[in-house]
């Protein structure tokens, strides 16, 4: 009994709409929800990041003045309590740092010995801070941040103190305190630039204990005599136990805001950022509306497309007949696509598929064999190329080692044969200088000049021999674990910098630990510093940095100069042995640097801009943390 079938047009239209629109509606609904949730999380995360970033700025702002006081208190004249010299230094600090409104020097009993300020009279009254918390804490810890006050009843200020330590005493003892009253208006200015009044966002810095409003993005708010944040906001942010966070916050007047906060390190201060919820989530609302409109248009076009497709599929007999005719003529390419369905076309489609199935199978086997052959051929080609590259690299390495061995043998012989005559010449010069020193009336200036030239050339020749020997010899590494910033500080402290070069030293307080051969690494660093000084013969700035990189697995040393830079056409050659652009030199200085970095498993990079200077970057792996000893700490 034949199966009864409905109209093909109706079936195709109904199923096409059902299959296409139902999943699209479900996916669209979930997409809107996910998008809104993601945007809200992103907005809150951005606001928390802004609060944390400005909290770090506030910490650096206060730390800057604390370091100024600490450095000044470390000067010998403060320890000796030389009043005249102290006054000079205090005046200089007031001139350089306009935010400092008042400076005082306290003796060990907390009594002011000296007081100067921008708005004080000629003979200000001396005060007693013996029981003041800022004095006792500074004497105990070495520094302190004290009470917040409003200068002239409007402008917020903070008291900062640093201990004056007599380093000559054995043991060292605290002999007083240097205290400053610092204006915090700079924080309000920075907040105003970061969160302008024209925007919807605002920010503030508040003391957690007292609610004292330290800074605000709106200058009018912070300069009120009783300036404070609303109590409902203060209650929320000052009772948090986490160092940072945020979320929706209801206010007493019915409004809701999106707020974020972050604690300021070492201070009981907190940075607070807020914006209205409707403004914060405006993007999410707009995105929802746009997605809904897109879905509406998709539904509209899907209906039209379904109608058109159903109309075309109801008359497929012509396509099947044409396909059968092409197969009969042996034309197997460009056949129309045929779909088997449970309707009037099904019988004809089954017949067509049965006729073409065998041909497709054989064709597929041939195509598969061809593709397999092509893949195998490409695989062989890649293996041959890889083996060729490995062979060439091994050959290059062997040639390099043979050359280094030859250079090492030659350097040892040449160094021995040349250093002996140089030593004889140096001894002769010393003898001549000794004899000339006894001549009445002094020596001839021309003779002194030529003697100095000979001594300079002897040092130059010895330096060239040392560079060649250093590059050609390979000794076993003797790694030591050192703290990178402290090690760099030790090198810089003994390096003889010329007076015309300014040193810009930036050593990371993280002080990462690295395993290095200190002798070889010191040679590499000194080579870079020597090169930098040579390209700044008249004036310039030498910048030296040591830092822990963002990946936390590597640390870097950067040495930069403000010299003429390296021409782009020679940047790729500067690490090659015996390549130099100097009138004199062996061209081995940077080659030694690369060799040292390769032996330490590190890397050396260079960035140069003609006319502006050059920066060399040495990257080293950070030392792995030592495993904890059984039973607790390292001394257990």
Task: Describe the protein.
It is a single chain. The chain has helices spanning 8-73, 76-79, 83-96, 133-141, 185-194, 219-222, 231-237, 277-280, 282-313, 317-328, 346-437, 445-472, 484-494, 518-534, 589-599, and strands at 100-106, 112-117, 143-151, 155-166, 173-183, 202-207, 213-216, 244-250, 256-263, 269-276, 480-483, 501-507, 513-516, 540-548, 554-561, 603-609, 613-621. Among the domains are: 74-183, Beta-Lactamase (2-Layer Sandwich), CATH 3.30.450.20; 321-390; 402-472; 480-621, Histidine kinase-like ATPase, C-terminal domain (Heat Shock Protein 90, 2-Layer Sandwich), CATH 3.30.565. A 5-stranded antiparallel sheet has the order 2-1-5-4-3, sandwiched between helices. Strands 7-6-10-9-8 form a 5-stranded antiparallel sheet. The protein is flat, with a radius of gyration of 40 Å. Strand 16 (603-609) and strand 17 (613-621) form a beta hairpin. The chain is of the alpha+beta class and 636 residues long. It is built from 15 helices and 17 strands. Helix 10 crosses helix 11 (346-437). The longest helix has 92 residues, at 346-437.
């Amino acid at each position: 009994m034949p199966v009864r079938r409905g109209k093909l047009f109706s079936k195709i239209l109904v199923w096409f709409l059902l299959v296409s629109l139902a999943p699209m509606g479900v996916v669209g609904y979930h997409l809107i929800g996910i998008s809104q949730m993601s945007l809200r999380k992103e907005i809150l995360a951005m606001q928390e990041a802004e609060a944390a970033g400005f909290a770090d700025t506030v910490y650096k702002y206060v730390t800057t003045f604390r370091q100024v006081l600490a450095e000044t208190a470390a000067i010998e004249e403060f320890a000796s309590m030389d009043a005249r010299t102290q006054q000079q230094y205090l005046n200089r600090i007031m001139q350089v740092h306009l935010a400092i409104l008042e400076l005082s020097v306290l003796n060990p009993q907390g009594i002011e010995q000296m007081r100067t300020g921008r708005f004080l009279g000629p003979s200000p009254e001396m005060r007693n801070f013996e029981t003041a918390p800022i004095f006792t804490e500074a004497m105990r810890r070495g520094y302190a941040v004290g009470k917040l006050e409003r200068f002239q009843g409007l402008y917020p200020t903070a008291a900062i103190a640093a201990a004056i330590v007599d380093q000559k005493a054995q043991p060292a003892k605290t002999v007083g305190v240097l205290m400053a009253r610092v204006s915090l208006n700079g924080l309000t200015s920075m907040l105003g630039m970061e969160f302008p009044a024209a925007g919807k966002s605002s920010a503030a810095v508040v003391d957690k204990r007292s609610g004292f409003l330290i800074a605000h993005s709106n200058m009018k708010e912070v300069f009120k005599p009783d300036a404070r944040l609303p109590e409902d906001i203060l209650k929320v942010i000052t009772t948090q136990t986490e160092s940072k966070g945020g979320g929706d916050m209801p206010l007493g007047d019915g409004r809701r805001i999106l707020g974020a906060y972050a604690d300021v390190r070492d201070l009981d201060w907190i940075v607070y950022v807020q914006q209205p919820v409707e403004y914060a989530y405006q993007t999410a609302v707009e995105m929802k509306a746009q997605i809904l409109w897109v879905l509406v248009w998709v539904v509209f076009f899907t209906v039209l497309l379904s109608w058109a497709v159903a109309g075309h599929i109801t008359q497929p007999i012509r396509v099947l007949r044409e396909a059968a005719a092409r197969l009969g003529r042996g034309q197997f390419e460009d056949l129309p696509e045929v779909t088997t369905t449970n309707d009037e076309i099904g019988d004809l489609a089954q017949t067509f598929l049965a006729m073409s199935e065998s041909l497709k199978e054989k064709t597929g086997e041939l195509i598969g064999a061809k593709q397999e052959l092509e893949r195998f051929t490409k695989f062989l080609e890649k293996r041959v190329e890889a083996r060729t590259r490995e062979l060439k690299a091994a050959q290059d390495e062997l040639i390099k080692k043979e050359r280094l061995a030859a250079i090492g043998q030659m350097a040892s012989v040449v160094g021995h044969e040349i250093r002996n005559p140089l030593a004889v010449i140096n001894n002769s010069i010393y003898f001549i200088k000794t004899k000339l020193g006894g001549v009445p009336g002094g020596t001839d200036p021309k003779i002194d000049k030529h003697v100095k030239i000979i001594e300079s050339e002897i040092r130059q020749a010895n330096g060239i021999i040392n560079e060649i020997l250093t590059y050609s010899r390979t000794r076993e590494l003797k790694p030591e674990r050192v703290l990178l910033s402290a090690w760099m500080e030790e090198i810089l402290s003994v390096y003889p910098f010329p007076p015309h070069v300014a040193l810009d030293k930036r050593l990371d307080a993280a002080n990462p630990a690295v395993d290095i051969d200190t002798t070889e690494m010191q040679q590499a660093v000194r080579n870079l510093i020597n090169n930098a000084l040579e390209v700044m013969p008249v004036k310039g700035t030498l910048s030296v940095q040591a830092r822990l990189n963002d990946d936390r697995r590597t640390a870097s040393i950067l040495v930069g100069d403000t010299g003429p830079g390296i021409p782009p056409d020679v940047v790729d050659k500067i690490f090659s042995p015996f390549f130099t652009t100097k009138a004199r030199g062996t061209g081995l200085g940077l080659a030694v640097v690369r060799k040292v970095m390769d032996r330490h498993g590190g890397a050396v990079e260079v960035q140069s801009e003609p006319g502006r200077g050059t920066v060399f970057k040495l990257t080293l792996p950070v030392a792995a943390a030592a495993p904890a000893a059984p039973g607790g700490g390292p001394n257990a």
